[in-house]
Amino acid sequence: MARLIFTRLLAAIPVMLVVATFVFLLLRLSPGDPAIVIAGEHASQQQIESVRMALGLDQSLVVQYVLWMSQMASGDFGNSVLSRQPVLSLIADRLEPTLVLATVTIILTVLLAVPMGAIAAWNRDGWRDRVVMTFAVIGFSVPSFVIGYTLVLLLAINAKLLPVQGYVSPFADPWGSLRHVILPAITLSIVFMALISRVTRASILEILGEDFIRTARAKGGHEKRILWKHALPNAAVSIVTVIGLGIATLISGVVVTESVFNIPGLGRLTIDAIQGRDYPVVQGLILVFSFVYVLINLTIDIIYLIVDPRIRY
Amino acid sequence: MDEPILEICNLSIGLNAPAGKEVVDDVSLTVWRRKITCLIGESGSGKSVTSSAVMKLLPGGLRLVGGQILLDGHEMTGANAEQLADLRGRVVSMVFQEPLTALNPVMRVGDQIGELLKIHRPKMGSQERKRRILELLGDVHLPDPPATLMAFPHQLSGGQRQRVVIAMALALEPALIIADEPTTALDVTTQAQILKLFRELMTRHESGILLITHDFGVVTEVADTVYVMQNGQVVEHGSAADILKAPQHPYTRSLIAAVPKYRFRSPLPPSDTPLVSAHDLELTYTTRGFTGRTRQVKALDKVSFNIDPGEVLGVVGESGSGKSTLARTLMLFETPDNGQLQVFGEDATKLRGQALRRYRADVQMVFQDPFKSLNPRRKVGLSLTEGPIENGVSKAEAVGRAHELLDRVSLPRDAMNRFPHEFSGGQRQRICIARALAMRPRLVIADEAVSALDVSVQAQVLALFEGLKNDFGFAMLFITHDLRVASNICDRVLVMHRGRVVEVGPTQTIFTAPQAAYTRELINAIPGEWDLTPAA
């Protein structure tokens, strides 16, 4: 297990190198002079030149590449054009709200969607199945900002049960934090839940037709045991795969949701950086998100090992 | 005094559709304690459906039409969920046919057996439960019970998994054990051990056994009472001795007649230019056992043999003896670590690119499972013409060939436009044979090609192979675990055991005067008593 984690992390290095190279080229090869863009609309020729010098853009592409890579390797992601702060500390400051939101979303989704899918499969074509599948169709088709604003209107503005927007750190005020994060988490998790409940249902239905389910039934005892002890663990590999893919797409959902609920996380930072043409920050974010993808994939691979003894790497 | 443990009276089961046909029609049978009752019939005769009705485990799409099932005094047809939860596993248990799929793949073997004890003996402590599981694993003669306890099903062989399923069936010493083709997927030596085990356990636990089989060899070996089923009805029943000696019903007679008889062929004179010449082939697999150690398995250990043009060489041996590895090596799916393999006068192991493609076209394979070896979403015509067209035959000619072959394997030409699921097992195997022959191969490898078929169908397919071989003149490597089948089609037989060639020689010599101890063991394990004098 330790060896797997180690080799996988080693394998992440070339992946990150490719991503870094791509980010490097994105800025250098995109049309327009980055120095002009970075210096801003009303900069004088002299200001543009000094930006060019500062960023090393007057050097050849190869020299720039080596320079960029060595900066990256030493953890120097450059400074934000807008705030002049180091990119890395900027990202670190915004990490917590996004992590809290993502974690609550994932927990909420897995806890609800997996049992929903399992019950739908067990109750195939019954009313519970119909309810779950109707929910899934709605979850897929309604855009998350519509769900977000609707929830705000109903629960925050009309019923006054929850705060409208904003963010409170769980370290400062756990209860307040949860109250703030619950609406955005529900908003984010609806699509995710629709996806996972559908996949859980489909894979359990497939497993329920297997021979070993009949064996389990022939053992006697209550039928519930067959669903939870035999069908669900066997469906786990496909469910875990989809949860992993879902977490990856969650990142794009975070951007929209954080805007709707005005949460100062990585999503907001991304939007602000793109709107402000803050190239160093955009680069840093792409690298961080890519690294998160790599980590998620590694985690999924490790979970495979745990849920299915037949899988060995 | 013997008492009945199961009484089925006038049981009828129909398709779950309006005006559905009855798949089980007015069946009555009785199973006694300390007796093995055999239910025999071909696939589709309703024997498995009847047995699953006893546990109220009817497959979807079927419904009970009428009749009664009295199990140890309990009426099963009207049993509710609570009664079933109590009776299943405790009073009646079942051994299923497919040892490879009957166990939960992600649950440890010990936990799967322990589950029964947890359900029915909730007060049993975990130490005591473990002791009981170990005892059961020992009862079914599994090697190293403590290690097996912790193993996952995929780490065990087919025979070992079947023993685990049997251990599960015995866990609570039920009054009735239903065994549905428990040995069909196993080789003869394992089958003999398991049948012996059934007898032994039955007397020890005072259980009754309902054994479902299509093999009269098995019936001869173990049955006390026999019921013969055809098209959902019991056509004949009586004591095993009576039925085997003096079958009354024509169907019973035809079933007994279809059991392969020994029929030795005179071997061809050896040729100077063999088609295949293998010398000292060696192939080692590295696997990881359930103890976590890596283990080297010599799948092929100094294997040498020849196949002459037009000859059928049989390969027999139990599962894991290296038969299939040999076939894969000959197909060049595996590269031997050592040794020479000359095929069609060329060094086969050195073939690459175009030459390899040509080689693969010349060597064709027919697989064991006709249900899985045809693409379910492709029409038969496409399967038959794809290979030739890929290899440069014009479409018109490929279609012509396919028509000819369908005629030859006695299937209608319109089969081209139908899907595999529209055919029975025997018909599908004919399609697979036609598919292989469409390539005009010089060598055909048949890997257990008739093992999944009913005996009567088996006889037809063997005759078909024989006829086609004469017409097309290909040589054949015929792999089988069934020695009776081997005797019917092979010129010479090669006996394999643990990757080694134990013995090779003309079929009749192998059967009547086996030299190696292992060959003798294999021949003795064949169920039933067989007359070794060749049939006319």
UniProtKB/TrEMBL annotation, chain A:
Keywords: Cell membrane, Membrane, Transmembrane, Transmembrane helix, Transport. The chain crosses the membrane at residues 99-122, 134-157, 177-196, 235-261, 281-307. Residues 95-304 form the ABC transmembrane type-1 domain. It holds the Pfam family BPD_transp_1. It is found in: Cell membrane. SUPFAM superfamilies: MetI-like. It is a multi-pass membrane protein. GO terms for cellular component: plasma membrane. InterPro entries: BPD_transp_1_N, MetI-like, MetI-like_sf. GO terms for molecular function: dipeptide transmembrane transporter activity. Belongs to the binding-protein-dependent transport system permease family. This is ABC transporter permease. It comes from Tianweitania populi.
Automatic annotation (TrEMBL), chain B:
Transmembrane segments: none annotated. Residues 6-256, 278-523 form the ABC transporter domain. GO terms for molecular function: ATP binding; ATP hydrolysis activity. It is found in: Cell inner membrane. Pfam families: ABC_tran (PF00005), oligo_HPY (PF08352). It is a peripheral membrane protein. Belongs to the ABC transporter superfamily. This is ABC transporter ATP-binding protein. It comes from Tianweitania populi. The lineage of its organism: Bacteria, Pseudomonadati, Pseudomonadota, Alphaproteobacteria, Hyphomicrobiales.
